[in-house]
């Protein structure tokens, strides 16, 4: 019951936010593979406890491999790479969202859902709050590396 | 109802008259009606209670967990009974916890509770509970509020004086309320009228791995004369090393105990020097006997319980080992047997008594040294009553049962017959205050009131009779409990609340001791269940002869697989469902139509549980989530198709074949 209450409240809040095309564009980009908004998104500060992620140009293979293991257990129930499932497809997520956004969605899910306009619009579209899967920071970082890797494939 | 009320009112009037005639102090009018303020027990919405209270569910075989002072019911912990709300005793993983040497027992009678202690103070690690009917002791893990272990007690009938513990949780005791033919004699098929020669009363000391896992094992068993051993308490501080057991039926009657076991003016409290018993055993004076008893343990990494049968029991005969046991004469059908926080005073309750005897541990040791005995019973010395008596509380009320302490030199005793709690000064043996209970109080509780460090503040009376306290609900009523503030000189009732089953004993501890340790979910990365589905990629179906294993995942809001075909009549289907959620308070339920053996599961985040489902007819059976999980909870469903035994439909399911 309390969950419905929170959801209803969230929907009410969302209804005050204009989910315009530019918000949805990021999603579309993920599906089409375009990256035109990347630069714009990256200039925004992220909500949540992760304010900076060190990213090297090359992929850390070992880290990405560990990330795949975590991804398979904790993420695949709702996310596929290339098609909409319970949640959005994730192949191009690292090209349309900042590393901080990805990390905070995993680690500080509730804060992102409550504050980030893009996430609010996604909630309106998918109607399901992403659960906090209690992943630790090291594992979340490895999931990010895995997502960076698959974006190149 | 009116007739009942009339009878009841007459009873109250009669009791009041009896009181009047024996000249007891009149009852406090403000206590009768409560404080009238009605807000002292109020905990505002969103705020937490100060104490956890664990109250036995009696014949429900469960434990109710309440917040104090609000009296809000927070959880029911299943221990010795199947519990549909939790799936306990229904899933394949939890069934073994109810195994005994007599087979799977669905329903038992849980009486008393004890929180683990270190140096005589609550340490917040475990809670112990006893099964009275088919004798067992259970250990509940206070991180999960779940039953972690159950050990059966052999050679015992009616495990009542249990699970009382020593001050460092070295031992948890069990004692036979119904003496039984000695299992170790090789012949228990004896005429009941040979009670005196063939029946024994075993006192069992169950060892606890108190420094580590808490796991229990049988330490030793003292084979006592065949009395009814009733309640017990460990010594503390100066009396640490001793244990005190009340007993009745020293007449050794085997029929109509109501009359035949009330013949003698005094029965006994058995004072047991368990450290001395340990010494005798170390010297080889014990005898290893053969029995058959079950030990059930729950493995938190596999989410699965297992049962093993054990056979060895170390026994010791007090007649052959002097100095282990002494009997203290105790008047009028002894019941409660409680030791004050200093360990010096032992308070006896007598179901038919009109005084409360208080014994002194120091005097007891002196009497033993000076051999102030009034004979013996089967070789066990009987101490002289006056020599060990500290004092008697005169005219305290009728039928004193149990006593708790506030750590300020006061004792609180429950009186069943006169339906009241009486506060008295231990040293002076003097009544200070009395408060009526509604109605016929049995056990009572002060948070930490049985330890070396009581937390005081409240006393709760747990009543045997409810009658008109709440809105009527037909012939079956909930039980009633009353909460009194004891921070001042006078006890003041501040709350009246219902409890489940019949609460016998209860325990309470500060909330801070437990809440920081409370587990929120089972980590998927630590899930070692052999049939776990760790991620949807692992979802699959497998046939092994007539057994079909379905590895299924559940997450908001779908199962995978959610379509299964190729099951045939005659198959036994095992649904191994893993809840892939890792967030707190996101359980999923799982229900399949027509499961006569088991048809529902409840899965905490990260947990795997198994339903054994045996279809009885062909067709397509729906299954669904029973615990509201998201806006699309109604969509969380699936189908399993059952075909005839000779069908050629292949076993298949819609698992994740592609990325």
Q: Would you write up a description of this structure?
A:
The complex is a heterodimer of chains A (153) and B (659). Chain A contains nine helices and no strands. Chain A has a single domain, classed as Cytochrome Bc1 Complex, Chain D, domain 2 (Orthogonal Bundle), CATH 1.10.760.10. In chain A, 59% of the residues lie in helices and 0% in strands. Chain A has 153 residues and is mainly alpha-helical. In chain B, strand 27 and strand 28 form a beta hairpin. Chain B is mainly beta and 659 residues long. Among the domains of chain B are: 170 residues, YVTN repeat-like/Quinoprotein amine dehydrogenase (Methylamine Dehydrogenase, Chain H); 127 residues, Sandwich (Immunoglobulin-like), CATH 2.60.40.420. The relative contact order of chain B is 0.11. Chain B has eight helices and 45 strands. At the A-B interface, helix 1 and helix 4 of A face loops of B.
Helices, strands, pairings?
The complex is a heterodimer of chains A (153) and B (659).
Chain A: H1 2-15, H2 21-32, H3 38-43, H4 61-74, H5 93-96, H6 99-107, H7 109-115, H8 117-126, H9 137-151
Helix pairs in contact in A: 1-8, 4-9, 6-7, 6-9, 7-8
Chain B: H1 2-21, H2 29-33, E1 51-56, E2 62-68, E3 73-78, E4 99-100, E5 103-104, E6 110-118, E7 121-131, E8 136-141, E9 146-152, E10 171-175, E11 180-181, H3 195-198, E12 199-208, E13 216-225, E14 228-234, E15 242-248, H4 257-260, E16 266-273, H5 274-282, E17 287-299, E18 304-316, E19 325-331, E20 334-339, E21 345-350, E22 355-360, H6 361-369, E23 373-377, E24 380-383, H7 385-388, E25 389-394, E26 400-405, E27 410-415, E28 420-425, E29 430-436, E30 441-445, E31 458-463, E32 479-485, E33 492-499, E34 506-510, H8 511-515, E35 540-544, E36 547-555, E37 558-560, E38 563-568, E39 572-579, E40 588-592, E41 600-603, E42 608-613, E43 619-624, E44 637-643, E45 652-653
Parallel strand pairs in B: 13-18, 36-39, 38-44
Antiparallel strand pairs in B: 1-2, 1-34, 2-3, 4-5, 6-7, 7-8, 8-9, 9-17, 10-12, 11-12, 12-13, 14-15, 15-16, 16-19, 17-18, 20-21, 21-22, 22-25, 23-24, 26-27, 27-28, 28-29, 30-31, 31-32, 32-33, 35-36, 36-37, 38-45, 39-42, 40-41, 40-43, 43-44
């Amino acid at each position: 019951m309390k969950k419905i209450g929170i959801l209803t409240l969230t929907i009410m809040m969302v209804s005050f936010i204009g989910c315009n095309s530019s918000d949805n564009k990021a999603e579309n980009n993920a599906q089409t593979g375009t990256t035109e908004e990347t630069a714009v998104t990256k200039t925004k500060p992220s909500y949540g406890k992760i304010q900076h992620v060190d990213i090297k140009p090359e992929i850390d293979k070992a880290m990405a491999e560990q990330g795949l293991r975590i991804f398979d257990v904790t993420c695949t129930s709702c996310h596929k790479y290339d098609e909409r499932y319970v949640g959005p497809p994730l192949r191009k997520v690292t090209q349309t969202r900042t590393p901080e956004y990805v990390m905070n969605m995993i680690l500080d899910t509730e804060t992102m859902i409550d504050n980030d306009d893009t996430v609010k619009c996604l909630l309106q579209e998918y109607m399901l709050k992403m659960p906090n899967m209690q992943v630790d920071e090291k594992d979340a970082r490895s999931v990010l590396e895995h997502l960076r890797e698959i974006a190149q494939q | 109802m009116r007739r009942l009320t009339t009878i009841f009112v007459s009873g109250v009037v009669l009791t009041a008259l009896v009181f009047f005639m024996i000249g007891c102090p009149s009852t406090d009018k403000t206590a009768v009606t409560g404080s009238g303020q009605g807000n002292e027990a109020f905990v505002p919405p969103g705020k937490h209670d100060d104490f956890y209270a664990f109250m036995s569910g009696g014949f429900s075989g469960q434990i109710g967990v309440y917040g104090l002072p609000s009296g809000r019911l927070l959880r029911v912990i299943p221990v010795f009974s199947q519990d549909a709300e939790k799936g306990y005793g229904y899933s394949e993983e939890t069934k073994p916890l109810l195994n005994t040497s007599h087979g799977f027992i669905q329903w038992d009678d849980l009486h008393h509770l004890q929180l683990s202690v270190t140096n005589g103070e609550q340490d917040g690690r475990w809670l112990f509970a006893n099964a009275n009917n088919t004798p067992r002791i259970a250990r509940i893990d206070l991180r999960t509020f779940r039953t972690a272990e159950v050990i059966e007690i052999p050679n015992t009938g009616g495990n009542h004086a249990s699970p009382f513990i020593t001050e460092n949780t070295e031992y948890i005791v069990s004692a036979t309320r119904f003496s039984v033919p000695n299992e170790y004699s090789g012949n228990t098929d004896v005429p009941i009228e040979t009670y005196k020669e063939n029946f024994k009363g075993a006192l069992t000391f169950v060892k606890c791995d108190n420094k580590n896992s808490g796991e229990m094992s049988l330490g030793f068993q003292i084979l006592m004369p065949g009395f009814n051993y009733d309640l017990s308490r460990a010594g503390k501080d100066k009396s640490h090393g001793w244990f005190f057991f009340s007993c009745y039926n020293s007449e050794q009657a085997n029929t109509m105990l109501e009359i035949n076991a009330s013949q003698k003016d005094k029965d006994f409290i058995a004072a047991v020097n368990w450290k001395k018993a340990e010494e005798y055993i170390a010297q080889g004076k014990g005898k290893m006997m053969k029995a058959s008893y079950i030990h059930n343990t729950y493995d938190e990494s596999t989410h699965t319980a297992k049962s093993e049968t054990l056979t060895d029991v170390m026994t010791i005969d007090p007649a052959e080992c002097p100095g282990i046991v002494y009997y203290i004469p105790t008047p009028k059908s002894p019941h409660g047997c409680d030791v004050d926080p200093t360990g010096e005073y032992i308070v006896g309750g007598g179901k038919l008594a009109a005084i409360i005897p208080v014994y002194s541990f120091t005097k007891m040791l002196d009497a033993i040294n000076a051999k102030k005995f009034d004979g013996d019973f089967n070789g066990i010395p009987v101490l002289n009553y006056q020599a060990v008596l500290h004092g008697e509380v005169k005219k305290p009320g009728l039928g004193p049962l149990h006593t708790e302490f506030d750590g300020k030199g006061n004792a609180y005793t429950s009186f069943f017959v006169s339906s009241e709690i009486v506060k008295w000064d231990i040293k002076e043996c003097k009544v200070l205050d009395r408060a009526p209970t509604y109605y016929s109080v049995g056990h009572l509780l002060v948070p930490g009131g049985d330890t070396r460090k009581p937390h005081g503040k409240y006393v709760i009376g747990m009543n045997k009779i409810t009658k008109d306290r709440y809105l009527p609900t037909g012939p079956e009523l909930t039980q009633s409990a009353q909460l009194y503030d004891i921070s001042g000189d006078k006890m003041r009732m501040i709350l009246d609340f219902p409890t489940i089953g019949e609460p016998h004993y209860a325990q309470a501890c500060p909330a801070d001791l437990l809440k920081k340790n409370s587990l929120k979910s089972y980590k998927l990365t630590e899930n070692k269940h052999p049939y776990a589905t760790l991620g949807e990629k692992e979802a699959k179906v497998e046939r092994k002869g007539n057994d079909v294993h379905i590895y299924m995942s559940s997450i908001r809001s779908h199962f995978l697989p959610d379509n299964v075909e190729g099951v045939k009549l005659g198959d036994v289907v095992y649904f191994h469902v893993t809840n892939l959620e890792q967030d707190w308070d996101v359980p999923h339920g799982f229900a399949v139509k027509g499961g006569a053996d088991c048809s529902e599961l409840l899965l905490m985040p990260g947990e795997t549980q198994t339903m054994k489902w045996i279809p009885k007819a062909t067709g397509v059976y729906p299954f669904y989530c029973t615990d509201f999980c998201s806006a699309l909870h109604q969509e969380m469903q699936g189908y399993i198709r059952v075909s005839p035994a000779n069908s050629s439909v292949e076993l298949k399911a819609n698992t994740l074949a592609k990325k």
